[in-house]
Amino acid sequence: MNKKIKITSIVAVLYVIAFLFTGKHTNPPVSNTVSWDSPETEATFYRACADCHSNETKWPWYSNFPPVSWAIILHVNEGREHFNISVPKMGHADEAAEEVEFDNMPMGQYRIMHPEALLNDAERTIFVDGLKATFGASKSENHDDDDDGDDERHHN
Ligand code: HEC
């Protein structure tokens, strides 16, 4: 066996090991029903947010391949931990409107692979109102304008 084939085999074996440690794609059962203010808000949420903030994730084919899979599984798990519409304790639902208003969400990397998740200004304005009507707005919503001197942010 020549050296090249040997190295290729070692790389292949390592990749299979990485593959085995890639972690599971989970979609736990949905145990919560959201009272959406409108079908549009719901549709936009499923278009731009549900992959990471619900248990109805559409796992893309490339999410099977390390190292991309590691990043995607991490983002979905972390996203669900912060805010998950599929469980009764949804988490930071009241931050949703603000995250969209300040264009923090959806996450940057997600936008590259999901152009359909991009919102134009008009869509964003409507979606923010819909999220407020559905999930409420966090108390910190106007903290950028407040003059009480404390500059607390509710982001990590
Ligand atoms: C690719 C996965 C992904 C997508 C898509 C995504 N998020 Fe997130 N989201 C995350 C992750 C990861 C976190 C936790 C880390 C952070 O706050 O940046 C998070 C955090 C949040 C939080 C909690 C913030 C807090 O203060 O704890 C809210 C609310 C949120 N996202 C709303 C949304 C909304 C609304 C959309 C759709 C417009 C969206 N996200 C799309 C991954 C995602």
Can you offer a commentary on this structure?
With 156 residues, this protein is mainly alpha-helical. It has helices at 3-20, 39-48, 50-53, 68-82, 96-101, 108-113, 121-135. Helix 2 (39-48) crosses helix 7. The radius of gyration is 20 Å and the shape is elongated. Residues 141-156 have low confidence and may be disordered. It binds heme C. Heme C binds next to helix 3, helix 4 and helix 5.
SSE-based structural type: mainly alpha
* The number of domains: 1
Average pLDDT reading: 89
Instruction: Sketch the major β-sheet.
Output: none
Number of helices: 7
Chain oligomer state = single chain
The number of E-state strands comes to: 0
Short descriptors:
156 residues, binds heme C, 7 helices
SSE inventory with pairings:
Blueprint (H helix, E strand, L loop, with lengths): L2 H18 L18 H10 L1 H4 L14 H15 L13 H6 L6 H6 L7 H15 L21
Helix pairs in contact: 2-7
Bound molecules: heme C.
Heme C binds next to helix 3, helix 4 and helix 5.
